[in-house]
Design a protein that fits this description.
The chain has 135 residues and is an all-alpha fold. Helix content is 77%, strand content 0%. The two termini are 32 Å apart.
């Protein structure tokens, strides 16, 4: 995804690009919901208002603000560096689960996180600079 959005987010900016993206998705999802409502027997969809408000808040923070920050970083760092930073998502989730939720990791999970993190470090160290390339 970052590679596909790089030129558009660079030209438009992070927030305008994300507004266009979210608007397009809202139209597509609205069409899908409308078509589904036309071809099913369900006439009412009942959601408690508190659930709807929590979904709206979650979507705003997680999708709109998070994606805007992602595209702002993509614009500043470029697709390669942004992908490397994004690949540290699994190790960060692993460590937060361990520290905050007191989850007990297995040996294989420790090995997997170490492999991911060392791969990111190798990509940062050896990537993009010809004089650092291994012979």
């Amino acid at each position: 995804m970052p590679f596909l959005a790089f030129s558009s987010s660079k030209q438009l900016g992070a927030f305008p690009f994300n507004r266009w993206r979210m608007g397009s998705l809202a139209l597509l999802f609205s069409a899908v919901v409308l078509l589904r409502a036309l071809f099913t027997d369900h006439t009412t969809f009942a959601f408690p208002m508190t659930d709807v408000l929590l979904l709206l808040l979650s979507g705003f923070v997680g999708v709109f603000l998070g994606d805007s920050a992602l595209f702002a970083a993509l614009r500043r760092l470029g697709p390669r560096r942004n992908a490397m930073i994004f690949s540290t998502h699994a190790p960060m989730t692993f460590f937060l689960g361990w520290l905050v939720l007191a989850q007990i990791p297995t040996t294989f999970e420790w090995i997997g996180v170490a492999m991911i993190f060392s791969g990111v470090l190798l990509a940062i160290f050896y990537g993009g600079c010809p004089d650092r390339q291994a012979a």
